[in-house]
């Protein structure tokens, strides 16, 4: 893994000749060439992916195609693009020639063609076509509403709806979550800054410690990976004495609500039962079973003036709506929850895929199970989990796959 750590340590852009990175022989789509040298591993959880991204134009293009394929329910096509993009995100140099891809894993013919078009012509006809297509644009807008998934977005599109105003005007029957999502659409689609996340952390910490001194509140998700902005703020809450966390969340949420800090929330009960045995099928269960609260916070922004979408008289306001997730975990599951909630989504997907295919283990946000020995593997830290999996430890800031 030392193939790029040195250049990243300086924190400044260093252009490295791509020929330093050779292909892992594990990758079926690549031609492991004759030259000796370090390789770019196939699984994202074997790579260190620090910020910044040197290939954003290319990764944006591949991710647009991945998303479009997902909108079209083409899972395989979507995954192919979704696996190629993070390879480019992991390398500490900009790919400027199509030939640079020869040294990289996970690039199939289609992804290669897109990179070739962009490096040679400046843009990709296919990506431009997607970006201008009415369907993609509409689904992008609709799926940007809190509470609207890809399936619902597509159904609305099929029904002839095209804009947020269509949803408002046609008095489309929305659920409570979607109503709130639509109402706060502009705020929720503008990035949450690190400063805002820190402010929210203060508020959450204050509320939690009020009811449970000694509780641990951790900012996870993209901010834990060192990102300076994100689409929401994710918190894990636990207490070193297992069991003390029970009954906490409802008190915290009631208090936040009584202070007028929640514009919307819904809660989910803890539904985790420790399995006696786990099947590979269980690893496909992406949802976790922690007690959680999914909310829209009202954050005071005293020095800023936000434009309101409502009437002129109140078009200056001093607050912003922000998405906040609160997740409560028993202490013994905390390392798994932390690993699962730190992300990135692709890093998590790859950890689970690596666990199943390379180790015959099942990993989720609650536990790690060894299907060969039929035992749960306990962990006191994220490091323990990487060690069980036989992986080098990857820092959160290096999980930006
Ligand atoms: N997660 C996951 N699988 C999903 C959704 C989420 O493993 N289908 C994990 C990984 C990241 C974490 O939960 C938080 O999710 P997001 O907030 O969606 O991701 P993020 O990386 O925090 O992105 P952002 O910075 O935009 O909030
Ligand atoms: Mg997040």
From TrEMBL:
Binding site for Mg(2+): 232, 234, 325
Gene Ontology MF, one: DNA binding
UniProt catalytic activity: DNA(n) + a 2'-deoxyribonucleoside 5'-triphosphate = DNA(n+1) + diphosphate
GO biological process, alphabetically ordered: DNA modification; double-strand break repair via nonhomologous end joining
EC numbers, comma separated: 2.7.7.7
Cofactor requirements of the protein: Mg(2+)
Enzyme class name: transferase
Superkingdom per UniProt: Eukaryota
Membership in a protein family: Belongs to the DNA polymerase type-X family.
Name of the featured protein: DNA-directed DNA/RNA polymerase mu
Organism name: Pleurodeles waltl (Iberian ribbed newt)
Gene behind the chain: polymerase mu
Entire-sequence positions represented here: 98 to 498 of 498
């Amino acid at each position: 893994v030392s193939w790029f750590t040195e250049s990243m340590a300086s924190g400044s852009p260093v252009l490295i000749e791509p020929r330093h990175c050779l292909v892992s022989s594990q990758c079926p789509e690549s031609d492991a060439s004759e030259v000796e040298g370090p390789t770019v591993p196939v699984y994202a959880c074997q790579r260190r992916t620090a910020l910044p991204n040197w290939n954003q134009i290319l990764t944006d293009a591949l991710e647009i195609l991945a998303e479009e394929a997902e909108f079209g329910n083409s899972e395989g096509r979507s995954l192919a693009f979704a696996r190629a993009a993070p390879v480019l995100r992991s390398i500490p140099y900009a790919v400027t020639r199509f030939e640079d891809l020869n040294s990289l894993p996970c690039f199939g013919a289609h992804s290669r063609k897109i990179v070739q078009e962009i490096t040679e012509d400046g843009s990709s006809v296919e990506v431009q076509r997607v970006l201008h297509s009415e369907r993609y644009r509409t689904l992008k807008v609709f799926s940007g509403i809190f509470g609207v998934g890809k399936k619902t977005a597509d159904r609305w599109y099929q029904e002839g709806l095209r804009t947020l105003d269509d949803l408002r005007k046609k008095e489309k029957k929305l659920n409570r979550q979607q109503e709130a999502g639509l109402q706060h659409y502009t705020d929720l689609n503008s990035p949450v800054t690190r400063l805002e996340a820190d402010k929210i952390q203060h508020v959450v910490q204050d509320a939690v410690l009020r009811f449970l001194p000694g509780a641990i509140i951790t900012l996870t998700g993209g901010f834990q990976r060192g990102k300076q902005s994100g689409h929401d703020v994710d918190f894990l809450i636990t207490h070193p004495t297992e069991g003390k966390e029970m009954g906490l969340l409802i008190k915290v949420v009631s208090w936040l609500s009584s202070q007028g800090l929640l514009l919307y929330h819904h809660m989910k009960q803890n539904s985790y039962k420790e399995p006696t045995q786990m099947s590979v099928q269980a690893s496909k269960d992406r949802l976790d079973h922690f007690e959680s609260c999914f909310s829209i916070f009202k954050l005071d922004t005293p020095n800023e003036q936000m434009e309101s979408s409502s009437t002129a008289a109140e078009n200056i306001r001093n607050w912003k709506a922000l998405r906040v997730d609160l997740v409560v975990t028993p202490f013994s599951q905390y390392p798994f929850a932390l690993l699962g909630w730190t992300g990135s989504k692709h890093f998590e997907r790859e950890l689970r895929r690596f666990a199943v295919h390379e180790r015959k283990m099942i990993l989720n946000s609650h536990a790690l199970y060894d299907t060969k020995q039929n035992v749960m593997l306990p962990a006191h830290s994220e490091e323990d989990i990487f060690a069980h999996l036989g992986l080098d430890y990857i820092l959160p800031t290096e999980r930006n796959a």
